[in-house]
Amino acid sequence: MRLRLPRTSRDERRAATLAVLIVVLALAAVFFIIDVFTDLGEYGLGWHIALELMATVALFISLGLMMLELREMQSRMDSLDRGIRAARGDMAGLIGGFFDRWQLTAAEREVALLILKGFDNDAIAGFRGVAVGTIRAQSASIYAKAGVDGRAQLFSIFMEELLAEPQATEKGGPEGPPRSS
Fold first, then answer.
1. Residue 3 is assigned to a structural domain of this protein
2. pTM (2 decimals)?
3. Are residues 112 and 73 in the same domain?
4. What sections of the protein cross the membrane (predicted)?
5. Residue 46, number of CB atoms within 10 A of its CB
6. Structural domain boundaries, residue 23
7. In the chain, how many domains are there?
């Protein structure tokens, strides 16, 4: 089961609003430029036409600046999206590294992943189509292999890795928690 974050964010709404404003400004700019050239041909260059021409130039400059801002905003959103995808990939690799170190079976890996996602034993049993007792036994085996006492400690292993300084996680990969003696 894969949980997804909502796609509508404040930045996406801002980008969409900015795009709509750009379209409206572009339509207004086209109208004004046509009006200026029509008036220029009809009346010649006077103070009114000069004022309309300056307003039209300012409109085109605003349009250009808004287009640059939209492009920069989309670039920032793409960068953030790449970062989130990289973090997800890193987290998946980190989890897989711990699971390999602990030598979890395929069934234990699936149960451990569901535990990390926050599901309780009843829900996990329902997803997997097995008895709750089976999930309890697999959970106990996971905790023993990981050297932890329960869900909270299992979860804390991964939280510590997420919050660790980048240099610490790059050196040796997942090392697992300290084992109690």
1. no
2. 0.47
3. no
4. 15-34, 46-68
5. 11
6. 10-81
7. 2
